[in-house]
Amino acid sequence: MRVALFITCLADQFYAEAGVAAVRLLRALGVEVDFPEDQTCCGQPAFNAGHWGEARALAKRSLEVFREAEYVVLPSGSCASMVRNHYPELLPGDQGALALSEKTYELSQFLVRVLGVEKLGEGLRGRRVAYHHGCHALRELGVKAEPLLLLQNAGAELLPWEAAEECCGFGGLFSVKLPEVSLSMADRKLATLPKAEVLTSTDAGCLLHLAGRMAKLGQGVRVAPLATLLWEAYAGQG
Amino acid sequence: MRAKAKRYPKEAARLLRERPSVREAVTGATLHFERNRLRAYGEIDTEAWRERARRVKDHVLTHLDHYLELAEGRLRENGVQVHWAEGPEEAHRLLREVVARHGVRRAVKAKSMLTEELGVNPLLESLGVEVYETDLGEYLIQLLGEPPSHIVGPAIHLTLKEIQELFHGRFGTPPDAPPEALAQVARRVLREAFLTAELGISGANFLVAETGTLALMENEGNIRLSTSLPKVHVAFVGIEKLLPRLQDLALFLPLTARAATGQRLSTFVSLLQGPAREGEEGPEEVHVVLVDHGRTALLADPEAWEVLRCLRCGACLNACPVYRQTGGHPYGYVYSGPIGAVLDPGLLGLEEAYPLPYASTLCGACQEACPVKIPIPRLLLTWRHRAVEEGLAPAWERGAIGAFARVMGSPALYRLLSKALRGLPLPQELQVYLPVLKAWAEGRGPLRPSPRPFHELWKEIKEEARGG
After folding, report:
1. pTM of the model as a whole
2. What value of ipTM does the predicted structure carry?
3. Which of the following CATH numbers is that of domain B44-293: 3.40.50.10610, 3.40.50.300, 3.40.50.10420, 3.20.20.70?
4. Interface check A135 vs B, CB under 8 A
């Protein structure tokens, strides 16, 4: 089986190690991994802000870049949802958009639903983990059980978090257009954060936003993308 | 009501800065409602109820002319005087006539968002009529001179302390009077109003077409009194509030109550069938005003009409993490929160309501809560797309998105940006990013990229598999 990784621009720039983790993990599970090097961004920021012309051009690029792929896997729920749910809306009648949509998965979704893997190893034994449900992974892609299952089966202690399913306030351009509201939402999220060793999520955007806010407030919790933790689950690293 | 939606970003920021107690009060109250809703939804086959309700509403909305005619005929048969109001002018004309004909000096009013749209209170006051809001929350904000902050809980943004201070100043109650004592005072004032008012005003949760029945939901009993004690009752009904059959109430009353407050049914439901007949008690005269105020035009909009399914339950406000930070006032119009963000552009025009579709992170919690499955995130995207098409996006945003699209459209430029993020000076072409990055970093500390981007690391690990 061959997977083309769509690493997404935020992960590429800010959580590069998550990409490496995803590659190693998939290979360890017997999957051949490609990284089409012409990829950039899925176009979601432009699409969500209403600039559909710009988003459409980027969607068309992605169609070309991933045309030959058997599966496309992203370490990001919201970018995966952009490709899966919004590309066909943005490019109505485009068979390529439909085809790409159908073969695109968020990483944990791919592991559980396509590979049928529910346990990666026990490398997270005893680790106290807080999981933030990225909104698009949760409500647009329906990815809820998969990451929790993989973390739990790796021995992690998933901490109950009142606001686990609440939006963190990132929202792409929202965080710049309405900065005060965005920060206020992050503060609410963080005020309810349980005493975790590590805070994780599928989405680099949410994590950047929360990690940045914690840094500003002097809160020191490790923040790691799900892909990184899943690799640790497999490889047993600390 | 005059819309101030354009000021949303400024007002939201100002409120967070100047009145932090609002955030605390609104978050607490909405979380309470939200937990109740989840419990109440958990008791039923929610998906089936919502789907059924969606279909009934879609049916009514797509055959609205038929049901409006039917409703008008039935209402008249029931002895109700039916009026049509395109907007506030006609509504005001009718009220002026009623006030003059009956010598109205005092009116009692049930909470109604539509009458906020129409500016009923200022009109009556200009005619020398004393108006009493009789819903306790609505009465509080009337005393404060504020608009409702929430569709269901108009005073949701107030703390007990603020209410204590208000009553202390107004009625001389002790500054630390318990809520029960405050309610006693309000009850005394409002009872007097009920007994002496010549006019009662209400909205309607539903209007059943086949029987001409007005259905009103409440928890305080004030609507019952407003619609039964005064000799004249005027009900303002948005044309989207119609239901085809009486039996539809069996679905919509409990569904609305569950969505709004987590109740199985509201404490009181009034089904009104016109003025009192011989030997009955009740109003001598009942008027129903069917109000358009932008709804027909919105119904004709193929991409935005679904918002008219709205039951005004407020569930989306309670579920919305954006609304929770500020309550409803910064939205600047009658309808706030997620539903306001997609309804107000339809009622006011996008230019007037421009920032509201952006008052969301598209998290989707609103759609999940909505009892009639209004696809709010999709409608938000539609209004945003139109805003951009109409040139309403600010220049900085157009610049930033344009630069973004150019960079992301070219792997070479993208690699240049990648280097710039790691310390090389940003080329001229990309400098439009700087203010955006700066704005971001202000509340969150500087952005710290990975030492090397993945696309560089890939070159090293590409061969790893072959090595072993």
Report:
1. 0.96
2. 0.97
3. 3.40.50.10420
4. yes
